[in-house]
Amino acid sequence: MIQIGDILIDTSDPVTLATLIGALLLFAVLILLIRAARAAGTSARMAEALAREMGGVNARVQGLSDGQQQLFGGLSSVSEAQALQQQKTLELLEKRLADVTEAMGQSLSSSSRNTAQSLGELQQRLQAIDKAQENITKLSGDVLSLQDILSNKQTRGAFGEIQLHDIVQKALPRDSYTLQATLSNGKRADCLIHLPNPPGPIAIDSKFPLEAYEALRRAETEAELRDAARFLKTSVKKHIADIADKYILEGETADGALMFLPSEAVYAELHANFPDLVRIGFAARVWIVSPTTCMATLNTMRAILKDARMREQAGAIRRELALLHGDVERLGTRVENLDRHFGQAAKDISEIKISADKAGRRARRLDNFDFEELAPETDPGSETVVRLGPEAQGQS
User: Fold this and answer.
1) What are the tens digits of pLDDT across the range 315-332?
2) What are phi and psi of 179, to 5 degrees?
3) Among 312, 334, 350, where does a domain finish?
């Protein structure tokens, strides 16, 4: 930039630069003219030289003007090319922007669908978790209810009786046992299995020494452990004695009874740490069973009942076998008769076929006017053969 007074001249502009150069040249020409005027008295040779110099300057000025025009044309071409390039660039940018917008729209749509699907799955999982939480809450309530049931002796006894009832109902036929059966001594057994003699009906009574077992589980010191073990032994011994006194009656029940423990844990504790209690039960002919061993014992009783009923029904089975044997013999006789009838029918059909064949041959001879004497055909069931001689043929 060049500042002349208050005027700023941009030297970066080619047109302005060319104009400035032309002005400078004109200014130089004017200076030369002034100097020529001052040197008017110089020789003609100097005037001619000055004239030639002026002509050269004019030619240079003209060339500069032509160059300026060419430069202006080039600048116009450059401007047009730049404008065209800018337009193409803008079009390309718009296209790319549209593609990017479309891709972003698709990506956002896909992300929205995936997000919606994920939210749906999350909602389902939350619902499942809520349902599981409800089940857990219900189960907690059931556990508390079970604890309340087991904390009371009467309800605990009812719990054992119901469990015993379910096991017996699944293992034995309905007519092979009686629930809450009353014996001749007025005592009522939880279940009486009607086994044949021997051994005879056997009683099952449910006992649940839960308090003694829980005391044993809660024991932390040696003293507490001894007291809890003593309490458990006392409770189980009393249960064994009660069952032996109440439910083993000579001539009425079997020579033994079952004590049902509705807890596998209590049963395992007795057999693992209190084998003397099990031996006491054996001595008193009271066998301690848990839900699992009770099912196995009842299945054995079921086999005994099945054998006894088979023996009871042996006479009826023999009668049915005799009747079945008679039916089989009658069936054999009828089959023989039917076979004989089939044989006779087959023979009759064979003879009918023979007669039909002969009748067919005679019909064909008559149709062909073949009246020559034929050999006699022997057929017990056929009619008399009629022979036609030459005279008969002539008459016919």
Assistant:
1) 777 788 788 888 888 888
2) -85, 140
3) 312
E strands in the chain: 2-4, 7-9, 177-182, 188-193, 202-206, 257-260, 286-289
Residue 145's alpha-carbon distances to 52, 151, 159, 165, 266, in angstroms, are 132, 10, 12, 21, 20
Residue 208 makes CB contacts below 8 A (sequence gap 6+) with 150, 156, 157, 159, 160, 261, 262, 263, 266
CB 271 within 8 A of CB 227: no
The answer to whether 289 touches 297, Cβ cutoff 8 Å, is yes
Q: Alpha-carbon torsion 8, 14, 19, 23, what sign?
A: positive
For 100-133, what is each residue's pLDDT tens digit? 778 777 877 777 787 778 777 877 877 888 777 7
Structure tokens at 272: 């693992």
Q: Are residues 235 and 357 in the same domain?
A: no
- Quote the pTM value: 0.42
Same domain, yes or no, for 280 and 335?
no
Q: Are 240 and 282 in contact (CB under 8 A)?
A: no
- Closest alpha carbon to 2 in 194, 11, 281: 11
Q: What is the pLDDT of residues 357-369, one digit of tens each?
A: 888 787 777 766 6
**What is residue 391's predicted lDDT score, i.e. its pLDDT?**
43
Chain centroid to CA 98: how far? Answer: 46
Residues 326 and 370 in one domain: yes
- Give the residue from 262, 266, 156, 144 showing the smallest Cα distance to 212: 266
Residues 6+ apart with CB under 8 A from 277: 233, 236, 237, 240, 270, 288
Q: Token digits for 74? A: 């080039």
The answer on 255 and 325 residing in a single domain is no
Distance (Å, whole) CA 168 – CA 76: 112
Print the domain residue range for 343: 319-395
Q: Which two tokens stand for residue 14?
A: 């080619």
> Looking at the structure, do residues 242 and 347 belong to the same domain, yes or no?
no
